[in-house]
Write a structure and sequence with these properties.
Helix content is about 55%, strand content about 10%. The protein has about 170 residues and is mainly α. It has a two-stranded antiparallel ribbon with strand order 1-2. Strands 3-4 form a two-stranded antiparallel sheet. It is globular, with a radius of gyration of 21 Å.
Amino acid sequence: MKNKILTKEEREEEQSFHFLFCQATLSLANRIFKDIQDIQNNSLTEYAFGYGLIQYASPYTTSITSKNQKKILDQKYIPTKFKKLHAEIMYERNKLHAHMDLSIFEPRRISSEEINGVIYTNYASNYIIRFNLLNKLSEIIELVDGTLENLSNDYTLMGKEKIAKNT
């Protein structure tokens, strides 16, 4: 679909849907983080945490709407005291969880051989602690709670402005 010029109403509707999906995605991340906090020492904790980070970061990456518009959640909703933590989460998400950034792993091939038509490679790489932010779980929960509160306040305000405009 080519980019077409949207009416003001269509832009507002797209923005509203994006906003709601951002809230839903952040709420899911928050539920995952709170469940991890409640159920400690589970063998799946680290993997659930990685998935939670990906869900948290999703609104802050480009989303394409049904009308081919690009949307990213504005970082103004992140409580100021958590901006640095947000940057750490985005970095860890981008380098370790959602993508495999070879610049971090710096793999070095040791050997490779073909067996029955399949090439097997042995390599060495940097040891990476993939779930380093897990020790900041309480802060991450505060970050998401604060962001959701800011989103909710703004959404309520947008609704009141729309009602006032229509009366």
